[in-house]
Amino acid sequence: MSEPSIFTRILNGDIPGEILLDTERVFAIRDIDPQAPLHVLVIPKTEEYRDVTELAAGDPTLLAEMVAAAKQLADEHANGEYRLIFNNGASAAQSVFHVHAHVLGNFEENKLVGF
Question: Fewer CB within 10 Å, N side or C side of the chain?
C-alpha cells in the first residue's frame, strides 16, 4: 500500500496546514507557494483519483462539489471572482497526484499571473 498523499497527511493532522473549509467529501487549504493574493487548494478527501480527468469519469458529483467549494471560498475571500485551475500530469505542473483544484483570486486589475 502506498503512503498517504501530503494532502491526506494535512487532513489527518500529521502535517500542519490551514484548513479553510471542511465538508463531508472535500476540504480546502492555503497553498504554501501562493501565486495570487488568494491561492487555495480544494481537495477531495478520497485519494482514489489522481487527476481531474479520472475524477470527472469516476465521480462527476464530487467534481461538482469541488467547484461549489471553490465558489464558496471565492465568495468569502475574493469578492466571488476567481480562477479555477486543475493541473493534469507532470508536464502540466501537477506535482501531487491526488486530484486538487487551485482557486486563485484577488488579482489587481489586468495583472494576472501566468497564462
Answer: N
Give this prediction's pTM: 0.91
For the record, the C-alpha cell of 71 comes out as: 465558489
d(CA 115, CA 105): 14
| Burial class of residue 105 (count of CB atoms within 10 Å of its CB; 0-12, 13-18, 19+) | buried
Q: Which residues carry out catalysis?
A: 100
pLDDT tens digits in sequence order for the chain, 115 residues long:
579 999 999 999 999 999 999 999 999 999 999 999 999 999 999 999 999 999 999 999 999 999 999 999 999 999 999 999 999 999 999 999 999 999 999 987 555 555 4
Burial of residue 18, with CB atoms counted within 10 A of its CB: 0-12 exposed, 13-18 middle, 19 or more buried: exposed
